[in-house]
């Protein structure tokens, strides 16, 4: 379980998270929607400790993420993350991209790492691309590679930071389909997304962030179909039009 | 112009010339290898502002890039000698070349590091890698690829600049040429051959570097 308790985060004088609290249980999918600058991506960065927080607590399976005694490198093995800008390693083949972390971080043998990598790549539909270099692939394929690379570490949770925002429109579908597949697999996920229809389809809960606070949170039916607040309605009408 | 070329003496002493060429190659290769290691470390401490090492890095770069290589060789040989630290000509020239190479490469590497998007670092971290692993497996391989050509230029510079060894009596190619021509006074012939040898050494190095880059760097960055 990921438990976020009254988290505050500032960049200099600018407070981007103003006391965020929410829980994500095992097997649940939470989508976070909201305008740019609302703090939704920052929250993901704080969950896997790429960013620090000023106050509050983030607990992942009883581990206090920002406690100085926490081994954050080890903690991140539990938390797979995929970013808006696909970050394939351009100097490695597709297969090497996915096998690198299992081999060097988990210390698996080369063969074990490669077989896990192959399995995950086949799972996301890149079974015929093992020896390709990522820069030769489309954005959608690179983003699926990023997902497979994260899955190869066998994480307990997956964090997705607007992973379709930088894609050409015709490539968005294949990436969202991959996420739907992960949902079927029972993966616990937090998706920061602008794809409202997707959020409605796959999420157990949806949180609408506005200027660093959770304006509204609940089932997709509550938040997307029947928003209570004016700000939520305004935002939805803008992105759905 | 009635200069008569006499090549015989040069050909007789060719083995010594080639030995000098070998020393030239030797000292410049070594100065590059040590320079690369030091420059990577200094570039990292400089970028991450790790005090007090970042001050050392800045001072090093400033002195190395803004004073003549000749002075640095003099400092290493005569300067330290005056203080009672006596280096052999080889070690003095090697130290000076390492000093300059490091100074220049720090800046080249820093540019190289900064050209790698921060997101590569984040993505690696998110996979559970520690900082050393991120650098070793993700950042450095990409950085070296981007700065490979400026780095080979620095290598060529080292080969040519090692000729300053002549001033402290080092037996590299220029030093040997100087010694041999003074025995026969066939100055022009000796220096023509030495120039050809320098040309061949740098061509050999650039050719090998080109081959190595094909082996080392696959994929596109």
UniProtKB/TrEMBL annotation, chain A:
Gene Ontology CC terms, in alphabetical order: plasma membrane
Gene Ontology molecular function, alphabetical: ABC-type amino acid transporter activity; ATP binding; ATP hydrolysis activity
InterPro entries, per database record: AAA+_ATPase, ABC_ATPase_HisP-typ, ABC_transporter-like_ATP-bd, ABC_transporter-like_CS, MetN_ABC_transporter-like, P-loop_NTPase
Domain of life: Bacteria
Residue stretches making up the ABC transporter domain: 2-236
Compartments (UniProt record): Cell inner membrane
Keywords: Amino-acid transport, ATP-binding, Cell membrane, Membrane, Nucleotide-binding, Transport
Entry membrane topology: Peripheral membrane protein
Protein family according to the UniProt entry: Belongs to the ABC transporter superfamily.
Protein name according to UniProt: Polar amino acid transport system ATP-binding protein
Species classification: Bacteria, Pseudomonadati, Pseudomonadota, Gammaproteobacteria, Oceanospirillales
UniProtKB/TrEMBL annotation, chain B:
Domain of life: Bacteria
Bilayer-crossing regions: 21-45, 74-100, 151-170, 190-212
Ranges for domain ABC transmembrane type-1: 21-209
Record keywords, A-Z: Amino-acid transport, Cell membrane, Membrane, Transmembrane, Transmembrane helix, Transport
Membrane topology, as annotated: Multi-pass membrane protein
GO cellular component terms, A-Z: ATP-binding cassette (ABC) transporter complex
Homology family: Belongs to the binding-protein-dependent transport system permease family. HisMQ subfamily.
Protein name: Polar amino acid transport system permease protein
Organism: Reinekea marinisedimentorum
Organism placement in taxonomy: Bacteria, Pseudomonadati, Pseudomonadota, Gammaproteobacteria, Oceanospirillales
